[in-house]
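Entry 14. Structure prediction run on the chain below.
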Amino acid sequence: MLALRLWDGNGSARLLEADPERGALLLERLDHRRSLRDLPIRRAVPVIAEMLRRLAIRPPDGLRTTGGIARQLQVSLPKRWEVAGRPFSSSMLDTALGLAADLSTDHEALLVNHDLHYDQVLAGDREPWLVIDPLIVAGALEYQVGQLLWTRFDEIVEAPGLRWCVDALVDAAALDATLARSWAVLRATDYWLWGLAAGFTGDPVRCRGIVKLLDTWEGESPVSTLPSPGREEGLGRRPPGPGRRNFLAHSRL
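Output returned:
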């Protein structure tokens, strides 16, 4: 509700009335039958990237931060990796921990909708597309790139490819390319472990594919060696919450 009040219909569904005690919201009518998932990926990616940037206003005080999330991951990832049965190499874990350390400081504080994905953007009358059901943190806008990759990963890897998608997100949302890749790898690693703990079979494979494709940056051989992802867990499920460097050069799964 806080995010909807802050945006006041600027890129999001307009909040008409609210009853916080009952947890009830009255929103403007949108077309629930049409979401950005219905658009071809080449059209959907620029739209959602521009929306990500548009919603990135100055955040209020007191929100959880992306830097704080990175610091939490420095602590939680090793234990979760062990509990999951060490599903990837220790060098990949070290890479994720290094990225978490690098990303643990918040530089630019922006409002980030950390559950923005293609099913959460519906067609409207007042504007062509409007965001619903936001969850917000403050910090780096690049934080959200990973989810925009894994929620349509199966289409992206077939065509136009992961590299095109990352570049399109970076260009349309005016992101830092290195931070975008760093956050994508860290969040994919995080969601990989979260998905395994939740009993998912498809999304962990997609996250593995993201990490391997960003490692090679060619988008060819890694996908052909992956098992076919299961589709039972619905791609819209909510996950748990500088200087160029070749951060994956020595990491192999």
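The chain has ten helices and seven strands.
Filed with the rest of this week's runs.
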